[in-house]
Amino acid sequence: MDIARLCRTLSAAALLAVATLGTAPPASAQTRVVLYSEAGQRPLSYEENGAPKGDYIDHFMRVANRIPGYQVEIRFASWARTVEEAKNGNSAGILGVYYRPKERPYLNHSKAFYAEEVAVHCNRDAIEGRTFHHYPDDFAGLRFGNQRNYLAPGPRFFQMVKEGRITMVEGHEFQDLVKKMLVGEIDCVVNPSIVIKEALRSLETRGLPERMRYKSRRALVIKTETVHIGFSKKYEEAHPELAKFRQLFNQAAPE
Q1: Does position 249 have pLDDT exceeding 90, yes or no?
Q2: N or C: which terminal CB in the chain sees fewer CB atoms within 10 Å?
């Protein structure tokens, strides 16, 4: 992968990093495209030593580097802010969304560039003696932590929340929700298993006793999700050049 230029132009309080992609033509002749991605979602999307890292970034860059004439910046923020920036037309879109056209009608979804396995992980004491075969019905009565605007748990899950059959506690940072799950403040979380495992490792480096890792149990793999760029419809109305980039991205993305 070629990274022609890497710049950090945003305050740490607001955003974590900015990556510039592309090779030719010169920057002055390039069309600028700003995409937001979730911060702290190791190993999928995160910043390390000032550089954007992760599987989402790597797979996206493989496609973006095939598109000349565009200067693509990746900015990191909380998931809730990432969604709001695209919804309000303040960014070109989101790097790393599941295909949810009904729930997010303000986005044009790109062709998929990645796929991942999503699972429910729970505090093993909270689910002792229970068996799980059907999601989310078998999880009735449990308390779930979920990031604001995060739709991976699915429509049926949110319907059960409305019915009072599942309790949902919202948070901004997924790692904080995992910690709450380990200490028993909530029972379960939903996310790719690879992200949950990385959150456990990171919590240990921050002083969480190693024995706490074993409080986490993968209860059920619930689905495989495809990952897309969610291009902002509102942004595209004011910047029609984004439609061309979206078309070129879909052409360059692997089948």
Answers
A1: yes
A2: C
Say if CB 83 and CB 91 are below 8 A apart.
Answer: no
In which band, very low, low, confident or very high, does the pLDDT at 207 lie, cut at 50, 70 and 90? confident
Cβ atoms of residues 174 and 193 within 8 Å: no
CB 106 within 8 A of CB 130: no
Using pLDDT thresholds of 50, 70 and 90, give the confidence band for residue 14.
very low
CATH number for the region 115-225 comes to 3.40.190.10
The model's pTM is 0.79
**Could you check whether 5-114+227-252 and 115-225 share the same CATH topology?**
yes
- The residue that leads in pLDDT, 88 or 20, is 88
Which CATH architecture describes the domain 5-114+227-252? 3-Layer(aba) Sandwich (3.40)
Mean pLDDT, rounded, of the chain: 87
Rounded CA-CA distance 120/122 in Å is 7
- Paired sense of beta strands 70-77 and 31-38, if any: parallel
Please spell the DSSP secondary structure of 20-70, one letter per residue: EEB-SS-GGGSEEEEEEEETTBTTTBEEETTEEESHHHHHHHHHHTTSTTE
